[in-house]
Amino acid sequence: MPAPILVFDLDGTLVDTAPDLLASLNTVLEARSLGPIPMDGLSKLVGQGARVMLQRGFDMAGEHLDPAEMEVLFSAFLEHYSQNIAVASRPFPGMETALDRFSEAGWKLAVCTNKLEGLARKLLEELGMTSRFATIIGGDTFAKPKPDAMPILGAIDRCGGDPSRALMVGDSITDIDAARAARIPVIAVDFGYTPVPVTELGPDRVISSFDALWPAVQDLAGTETAQA
Ligand SMILES: O=C(O)COP(=O)(O)O
Ligand SMILES: [Mg+2]
Question: Is the pTM of this model over 0.90?
Answer without folding.
Answer: yes
